[in-house]
Amino acid sequence: MIWLLLTSIVLYLFGSYKRPVFVAALLAELVYLGLRGAELGRLPLIGPQDTLAFFSASIGLMALPFIFSKTPRTSASFSWGTGCMAALFALLALPFPTLNMPLPPVLKTYWFELHVALAFFAYALFGVGALLGGMFLFNKEKALLDLQYKSALVGYSFFSASMVSGGIWGYYAWGTYWLWTPKELWTSILWLFYSLYLHLRLKGPQWERGVAWAGIIGFAAALFTYLGVSMLMKSSHSF
């Protein structure tokens, strides 16, 4: 099955500036995840390889509406940029071993799968927003900043829903909605950051560069919340 992931990486890197190739790369990745899920009998959301591959596919999936919308003249650059971003995280997944163990009892609930899937959709949209913000800083197209805001707003909605479902999962797993582990602390920081980001836009045109940079910084914070906390801090959410 790993050849499907490798195929998606090659397509993302060398042809994703064309919409049909981008879609083909995403389909190869989704088929890979579907086969992994069928093999495991659950969503592949445990361990660094599966989560990185799921995150990569989430980036491609969440970018699709922006790629096929009436984007500015930089649409090919955006398609290739998101393709490279998806390819990067798929490449990072390759060195890690696959984990085919059954789910521990604490994770055997649909609330866990919903919580994690929504979080990855949010992270992917924050990544899409960061790319749009970087493109705005480069060519000053106002439409890109509008798209960045929409990406962050939908991502914020997904992230808020992820926190709610995570609280319900936590209650079933540990008897409490919140534990104040490092992961939960950084989740709170990220949610508050994007709450402020969404209001920063109200400051007017003079803050446009600040809004673009805030979207880029927010994605860096999202990556630390996902990868940094799991790898550097001991937490109930570590993979």
Describe the structure.
The protein has 239 residues and is mainly alpha-helical. The protein folds into 2 domains: 102 residues, no CATH class; 136 residues. It is 76% helix and 0% strand. It is built from 8 helices and no strands. Helix 3 runs antiparallel to helix 4. The two termini are 22 Å apart. The mean pLDDT is 88.
Number of helical segments with 4 or more residues: 8
User: What's the number of extended β-strand segments?
Assistant: 0
Number of domains: 2
Q: Name the shape in a single word.
A: flat
Rounded Rg: 18 Å
What share of the residues lie within helices? over 70%
- Average per-residue pLDDT, rounded, comes to 88
- Report the major sheet: none
Order of helices and strands: HHHHHHHH
- Terminal CA distance: 22 Å
Structural class: mainly alpha
Low-confidence parts: none
What amount of the residues lies in strands?
under 5%
Main location: membrane
Domain Cytochrome c assembly protein: 58-234
Pfam family, one: Cytochrom_C_asm
InterPro entries: Cyt_c_assembly, Cyt_c_biogenesis_CcsA/CcmC
Keywords summarizing the entry:
flat, 239 residues, single chain, 2 domains
Summarize the structure.
With 239 residues, this protein is mainly α. Helix content is 76%, strand content 0%. It has 2 domains: 102 residues, no CATH class; 136 residues.
